[in-house]
Amino acid sequence: MATEVTGAAVPAESNTLRAEEERLRGMLEDRLGIRTRVASLPGTRALLVSPISAGSPKGLIVDRSASAAERISLYVHLAAHIALKHDVPLITIVESRGDVTSGDENKHRDADRLARAMWWGTSARADGRELWPGRRSRVLRPLLASRPGRLGLRVLLLVLRRLYYAARARRFLENTVVARSLRDALCVTAVVCAAPELAALRR
Amino acid sequence: MRLQDRERVSKAIRTLRGDRSLDSLVDRIFEITEGSVSLDRATLQRVATGRTRVTRAIDSPEDCVRLYFALMIIGCEEELTLAEIVGEGRTMLAGFVGEPLATLVFADLRRTLPKLADLRTLREYLEEGLRVWLPK
Questions:
Q1: Does residue B120 lie in a domain region?
Q2: Is B64 exposed, middle or buried (0-12, 13-18, 19+ CB in 10 A)?
């Protein structure tokens, strides 16, 4: 059998992202009864297998090559599928790397739309708000809406992180609002860069 | 359980086991199903050679579904062709639980198969399919 998910799947990733991924994976298990493991799935990002009875745990397999940011985006997308009741017993949800098959196109599009609302905490659906802790960031949403904005912010945050460690600011700033906000912004930006479908639509 | 077409089930099991001996097959099924399907060598021998319609160790439809997944995983390990694994797996299941339940369980594999890139991905799907059928 394939290995369980470990935080050390991609060693170069930031601890913040890995910790957040671990927290959200635990939340998936507690709130949605989804057990996650990683395996090599060429051409596929993830498979969510639903059992015959609604109360039994579901099985999620995530491709080994997915980064922590990509895994987080998958979790919110799958939570959206569940909020939309796509997790029908004995029907597997396949997240492909290529084009989705025509029969599933609408389901994935609806899930993307709801995932975006759940991610930013703007979902009008009560079940969507219950399933996922949204991030009500009025600053990041517009900044991450465009590709140049996302890339620019990502670079800026990575530079700030480097300065934070180089200047040994950790001694003074750890556990302050500034450090928490920077960590959170870095995490949100990395996830939206990995899954641009989570970016807020530009008006 | 009472087999509906013992000849066909026997052929399916013989195909899916590939080059494995019956002893090794019994051990592997026990291992894959985490001990939840404990076929003994004698029963499996009788089923695989088409000499019995009654499988005492397989008492419930859930046991049959676990055996279905386990045998197809073994088919993947034996590097059989996709058509052999899927076709013989379905035949084996229908022989054990009857066409209606087999169709219901098999429908997911039929829908999912075109989206799976290769045998390795199929095997992961089968392993997860088996996991959700394991007793709590």
A1: yes
A2: buried
* Domains identified in chain B, total number: 1
Where in the sequence is the domain holding B61, given as residue range(s)? 6-133
Q: What is the pLDDT of residues B64-105, one digit of tens each?
A: 999 999 999 999 999 999 999 999 999 999 998 999 999 999
Task: Tell me the chain B residues in contact with residue A52 when contact means C-beta distances shorter than 8 Å.
Answer: 132-133
State the Cα–Cα distance between residues A131 and A192, nearest whole angstrom: 19
Backbone φ, ψ for residue A93 (5° rounding) = -95, 120
CA dihedral (B100, A89, B90, A108) positive or negative: positive
In a domain, B1, yes or no: no
Contact between residue B77 and residue A57 where contact means Cβ atoms under 8 Å apart:
no
Give me the interface pTM, i.e. the ipTM: 0.86
pTM across the whole model: 0.85
Residues of A with CB under 8 A from a CB of B: 1-2, 35, 39-44, 47, 49-52, 56-59, 61, 90-92, 94, 96, 101
Residues of A in contact with B107 (CB under 8 A): 90
Q: Residue A34, class by beta-carbon neighbours within 10 Å (0-12 exposed, 13-18 middle, 19+ buried)?
A: buried
